[in-house]
Structures are given as structure tokens and as C-alpha cells.
Amino acid sequence: MEQTPKHNTKSMQNANETSIYKLLIVGIVVSIVGVYLRFAMDSTILSLVSWIILFLGAFICFKAVFKILNS
């Protein structure tokens, strides 16, 4: 007997929402800015700010992934 895939689960419906993809894109862009600033100049303050921006972007990405997994 052939099993049909269950694509109508709540998790799959949430994974296909465009708001989650937008949140992931924002998180990735913020992380890229943090990485760029990390290597752009050599300053203690700029390095600290770039690490904060990088972790903020990672937090945004984790938030989007856990939003999918929460359902």
C-alpha cells in the first residue's frame, strides 16, 4: 500500500508562509552586515558593535526557524 505524504500539516503550512522567509532574509542580511563590519576596520568599538549586530542577525534567524518548528 502506497503512503501519501502529509503536506497539509500545520508545520508545513507555517513553513510556506512568506513572512517567515522575509524574517529569514532580514536575519541573513543583518548577519552579513555584522560579518562585513567585523573585517572592515580594526577598532575595538567597531569590533564589539559588529559582534552585537552579528548575534542579532543570528537571533532573528533562530526566531524564524523556531517559529516553523513551534507549530
Protein architecture, described:
It is a single chain. The protein is mainly alpha-helical and 71 residues long. The protein has one domain (10-69). The protein is built from 3 helices and no strands. The chain crosses the membrane at residues 20-39, 45-66. Keywords: Membrane, Transmembrane, Transmembrane helix.
**SSE arrangement, N to C:** HHH
Number of domains: 1
Cα-atom Rg, whole angstroms? 17 Å
- The overall average pLDDT, rounded, is 85
Helical stretch tally: 3
- The share of residues in extended strands comes to under 5%
- Helical amount among residues, as a percent range? over 70%
Overall number of strands: 0
Structural class: mainly alpha
| Shape by Cα distribution | rod-shaped
| Poorly predicted ranges | none
Spatial separation of the terminal alpha carbons: 29 Å
The major beta sheet can be summarized as: none
Transmembrane segments: 20-39, 45-66
Keywords: Membrane, Transmembrane, Transmembrane helix
